[in-house]
């Protein structure tokens, strides 16, 4: 046996490795889906008083800004920046501003225009995008009610009012919940929308009650129809890593903590400004007096800050005199803290310049467009989902109409176009396209198409190409025809 083999055998007998023992790790979730949705909705509402109440009721770290309770006598003003609501509203506006007219076959275009007008379709989609960004997901519900409209009625329910039923990873049923508050208590109407059926269930507490109890539900009846049609369309932009099968809000994934830190930085700055107001040291005969009783007025931390002292006695006078001291505010440190907290809050969602936040005034147009890339990525994600969901929603509406008329649903070619976001200016486009033409790497047709895009139709572009060719001495002439003499 060689020396190496002897050393190897010796190591084997000396070194013994035991496998790791199976250990269970238990993590307690802070909130369930509905409670988390309520928290996100409070952040969107942007009321400081509501945020303070919220974080004092949920189980969280009491050292967080909104959960912390100040020591008596050392209370500070807790201010909210409103950034969460601004993020959602601006993203929704950016997406909806680029939504163009929906393209449908001519034979159904007029019918869809009536449906869209009665349902205020653009307003409905704006609400749906906003609610989905706040809550995480939601669903469109299509119903028929001849007492209200002869057209199908489209409604959107946010994620905290629906339940998604999945089978093998696919949605097979959507349950829409509506709460009715009556003197006898609260009732919950569960509308089960599945493939080929709609079923209704009225609950009071944990018990089923007849639909006839409430006038709002007395006329509802279960229906069955074509099993290929479900009169509901779900929508979500991001998948949740916490709640399986549900959507993720923009405020999840640690963003709530970032918003909390941002509010703390801003509130501390305000507190420093208030504490840095000029301080007056007044002799007793200079202190403010009550004009009616003559008694000394107590200092007020907001508008009457003074300290009673013996005053200042100088070499030139023996009479004490008041003194005014102005504290210094380290505004650069506060500004750096605020900008860092703001960057973390907006990171991965939206660019500061999109919100109108000027973080650097010397940026040129190109630098501003570079900063818009984060907004562009988020916008493209939302637009991509809408271009999938909206055609499916419109297809479902016409499937419902077909079922209502005892017809077979037909597939419709639907296109929901969106314009471009943060396009370069016309001047920069002319400069870029001009360089391509002078370098001989772009034809006149390609240059005109790139320059005008969808703003001009094909006929106009073709005429423009002919005009440019004529001006540059390029003429297209018909081929001469030679005939033999008779």
Question: What would you note in describing this structure?
Answer:
By secondary structure, this protein is α+β, with helices and mostly antiparallel strands. The protein folds into 3 domains: 261 residues, no CATH class; 50 residues, no CATH class; 48 residues, no CATH class. The protein has 13 helices and 12 strands. Strands 3, 4, 5, 6, 7 and 8 form a 6-stranded antiparallel sheet that branches. A hairpin with a 2-residue loop joins strand 3 and strand 4. The longest helix has 32 residues. The mean pLDDT is 84.
Radius of gyration based on Cα positions: 34 Å
The low-confidence runs, each spanning 5 or more residues with pLDDT under 50, are: none
Mean pLDDT: 84
Q: Mind summarizing the main beta sheet?
A: 6 strands, antiparallel
Between the first and last Cα atoms, what is the distance in angstroms? 113 Å
- For the record, the count of structural domains works out to 3
Structural class: alpha+beta
How many beta strands in the DSSP annotation? Answer: 12
Overall morphology: extended
Helix content: 25-40%
Number of discrete helical segments = 13
The SSE order reads HHHHHHEEEEEEEEEHEEEHHHHHH
| % residues in beta strands | 5-15%
Topology:
Blueprint: H1 3-14, H2 33-45, H3 48-57, H4 83-97, H5 106-118, H6 121-135, E1 137-143, E2 153-158, E3 162-167, E4 170-182, E5 185-194, E6 197-204, E7 207-209, E8 223-224, E9 232-236, H7 255-275, E10 279-282, E11 306-308, E12 323-325, H8 331-346, H9 365-371, H10 373-404, H11 426-438, H12 444-452, H13 458-471
Parallel strand pairs: 10-11
Antiparallel strand pairs: 1-2, 1-9, 3-4, 4-5, 5-6, 6-7, 6-8, 10-12
Helix pairs in contact: 4-6, 7-8, 11-12, 12-13
């Amino acid at each position: 046996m060689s020396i190496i083999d002897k050393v190897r055998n010796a190591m084997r007998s000396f070194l013994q490795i035991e496998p790791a023992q199976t250990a269970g790790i238990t993590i307690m979730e802070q909130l369930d889906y509905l409670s988390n949705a309520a928290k996100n909705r409070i952040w969107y509402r942007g009321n400081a008083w509501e945020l303070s109440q919220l974080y004092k009721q949920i189980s969280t770290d009491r050292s967080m800004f909104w959960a912390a309770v100040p020591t008596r006598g050392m209370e500070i003003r807790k201010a909210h920046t409103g950034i969460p609501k601004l993020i959602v509203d601006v993203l929704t506006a950016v997406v909806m501003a680029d939504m163009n007219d929906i393209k449908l076959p001519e034979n159904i275009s007029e019918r869809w225009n009536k449906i869209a007008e009665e349902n205020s379709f653009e307003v409905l989609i704006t609400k749906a995008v906003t609610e989905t960004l706040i809550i995480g997901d939601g669903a469109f519900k299509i119903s028929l009610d001849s007492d209200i409209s002869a057209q199908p009625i489209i409604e959107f329910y946010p994620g905290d009012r629906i339940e998604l039923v999945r089978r093998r990873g696919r949605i097979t049923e959507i349950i829409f919940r509506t709460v009715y508050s009556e003197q006898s208590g609260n009732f919950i109407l569960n509308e089960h929308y599945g493939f080929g059926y709609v079923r209704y269930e009225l609950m009071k507490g944990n018990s089923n009650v007849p639909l006839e109890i409430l006038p709002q539900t007395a006329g509802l009846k279960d229906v069955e129809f074509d099993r290929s049609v479900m009169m509901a369309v779900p929508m979500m932009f991001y998948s949740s890593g916490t709640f399986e099968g549900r959507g993720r809000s923009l405020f999840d994934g640690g963003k709530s903590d970032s918003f909390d830190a941002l509010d703390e930085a801003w509130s501390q700055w305000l507190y420093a400004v208030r504490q840095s107001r000029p301080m007056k040291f007044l002799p007793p005969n200079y202190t403010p007096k009550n004009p009616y009783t003559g008694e000394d007025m107590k200092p007020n931390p907001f508008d009457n800050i003074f300290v009673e002292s013996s005053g200042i006695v100088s070499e030139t006078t023996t009479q004490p005199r008041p003194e005014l001291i102005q504290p210094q505010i380290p505004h650069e440190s506060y500004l750096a803290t605020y900008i860092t907290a703001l960057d973390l809050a907006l990171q991965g969602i939206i660019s500061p310049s999109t919100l109108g936040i000027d973080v650097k005034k010397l940026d040129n147009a190109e630098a501003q467009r570079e900063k818009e890339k984060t907004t562009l990525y988020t916008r493209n994600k939302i637009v991509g989902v809408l271009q999938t969901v909206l055609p499916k929603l419109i297809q479902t509406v016409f499937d419902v109409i077909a079922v209502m008329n005892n017809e077979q649903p037909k597939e419709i070619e639907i296109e929901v176009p969106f314009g471009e976001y943060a396009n370069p200016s016309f001047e920069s486009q002319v400069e870029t396209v001009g360089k391509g033409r002078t370098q001989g790497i772009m034809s006149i047709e390609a240059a005109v198409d790139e320059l005008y895009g969808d703003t001009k139709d094909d006929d106009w572009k073709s005429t423009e190409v002919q005009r440019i060719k004529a001006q540059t001495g390029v003429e297209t002439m018909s081929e001469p025809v030679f005939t033999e003499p008779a």
